[in-house]
Amino acid sequence: MQCSDDPIPRTRLKVLAGTLPAGIGGSVFLSGPKATVGQPIWGSEAVIWRFDFDEGGVAINKEFARNPQWWASKAIEDDGFFAGLRKSCFAFKDVGAGFFMSALLGVQDMQNIAPIPLSPRLMMVTSDNGRPWILDPDSLDVVRPMGDRVDWKPGMNLPWPFGMYVTTAHPVLDRPQDPDRSVPPIEDFPDTVPASDVTEAPRHVYSTNFMPKAPVIPGFTHLIRWDVQTTEMEHFRLIDQASGEPLVIDETLHQLQVTQNHVVLLESAFQVNFWLLALNFLTNFGVPSWVIDALTSNPDYPYARFWVIDKNALKKGGTPDNPVDIEAKPIPIAGESWHFAAPYDDSKGLHLFVLHTPTADISHYIGKGQKMLDGSTARPELDGFFTNYGLRPAELGLHTVDVEAGTVKSAWVANEDHTWGLGVHAYRYQARPWLAREMPRVFMTSGGFYRGGVPQSFYNLYKARAPRVDELPTCQPGSVFALDAKTLSIDGWELPQGWFTFTPTYMPPVTWTKGAYVEDHDKPDGDGHLFVVAISDPTAELPEGSSGTEVWIFEAGDLAKGPVCRLGLPDLKVGVTVHSCWVGTTETFGSGPPWDVEKDFDLDDIEAAYQSVIPDWVPLSGLWKKGVSRYVKMKEIRSMFREKIYPRFKGQD
Questions:
Q1: Which of 222, 555, 563, 653 has its CA at a distance of 20 to 30 angstroms from the CA of residue 301?
Q2: What fold, for 8-67+109-593?
Q3: How confident is the model at residue 201 (pLDDT cuts 50, 70, 90)?
Q4: Counting Cβ atoms within 10 Å, is residue 315 exposed (0-12), middle (13-18) or buried (19+)?
Q5: If we measure between CA atoms, which residue out of 366, 116, 155 comes closest to residue 272?
Q6: Eight-class DSSP state of 367
Q7: Is 239 helix (H, G, I), strand (E, B) or coil?
Q8: Each residue of 368-403: pLDDT tens digit?
Q9: Which helix (H) or strand (E) element contains residue 582?
Q10: Which of 136, 125, 204 has its CA nearest to residue 167?
Q11: Where are the beta strands (DSSP E) in 270-421?
């Protein structure tokens, strides 16, 4: 499941089987980690894919999302900065739990999780551990971060130029707000209007800035609101309504949703094992990282905890160091989760569609030589891959929440033919939920279950919640399926043995208008299509011209038919993809207000931060501060930024 090493210029895919459907158009964007064998996958370099559908077929191109930390790492590893023994203090190293850190520079974050369209203006790419970045959808380069460093509160109070900014991978765009809070009609937000002509376009993006509970380090939880037009970022400190205390979460906040009256945060089933970071030095003495993880990990909580905020109570926010307090109400629902959807209209109650994924804990990695559940030793190509399989089938929950009373009414759907190893989901209007008249069909992929993909240590961690090993399937195929929220019925297609799918993308029905593909809002969901990346080991059964990595197209209204078109190239290697999006056109996209990289990474401020480790009251503090600058090689840091980082991002607009 490794990705090819080089960028790919625009290249036409070949039809391997079936026929590309008529009436399909627009662009699909995918992001994911490069997935280098032996390296924890969530710390891998970020890859961005673009697939363009037009009358001529499907064209792809691929680039790497390279932020200042990546260019700093390259300067250290390839360009000779900080040579000799001092290099070890500056180089970014795997310190466990998916973190790559430099002792003197900070955290190397990778935007390898999700592309988020802020149509018709901007597109972001994100991670859970770093500022979101604005993506140029044509060059696929990252051009500026969401907010400057001073707009974020670092998780650790250390004098690093590259701080630890823990956030959500799913920031959400909110709709325009009228005085009467009515939802604007579709034609008030057309897909084809240039950004300069859109006066009432959505401008607020909601996200988070937090630090979960950790040994010694104080935690915090902020909701942030970013103005797309002015780049102003407001901070709100969350107060646990139940306790009255500032909220510090135990796990992570991978996703949030915005409805007409609420902001809803999901405390997701992903714990950062800080003991793995603290004890990572043991790997220098031959102790495998997975052994440390197995001895120090705790299982995720067996429930999804939602935090619900009254959006109408959000007035003017504060700064990272002086945030405005706002209450968040805890709503626990049985069954852990990573992802959910929430219809925008909450006038008759807050409705949550939740992908409950019991024991599917992807914070752990498979290590070299690790014993697997089927008695085998981990395959070499799985070294660094996450533990992808839950030990029970997933359940789909449709929950109606009475926020004031704190009560939940639930309906549950499960189907063992489809919900083992549940992945991510896609649905119509995912980026602009206020346009949906009702909860649309939700499309999902599942990885099935394979005992040879589950480490014995992972099973031991969740043994109390899992069936006996002999009750688990030896090999359950994955599937592509959909849930109808009205009938609570599931329909789908089981994958052939040996195939694995990533990242479903819903492609709506479109019309060709004014030189662009525009979503046809009058047509039902079933008239659209589903885009899926499918991967198999090369076999004799593959179609001619297939590398084992293919793009499959399904009719959204008839998934059981299987893929109606398979596309690929003899040398195509997409690797692991995580999240995706569809847009009709990128002609209206820009890069937002100009970013002053020299102001964001001000070298005098960076030097002053290093010197701040010496308090002013220390005798001869001025001399000690100069000594700090020499120790951290501030002269070389200045040269690195001026020669290798500034030129990459100056002049972006």
A1: 222
A2: Methylamine Dehydrogenase; Chain H (2.130.10)
A3: low
A4: exposed
A5: 155
A6: -
A7: strand
A8: 889 999 999 998 888 888 887 789 999 999 999 999
A9: strand 579-583
A10: 125
A11: 303-310, 324-334, 337-341, 350-356, 395-402, 407-413
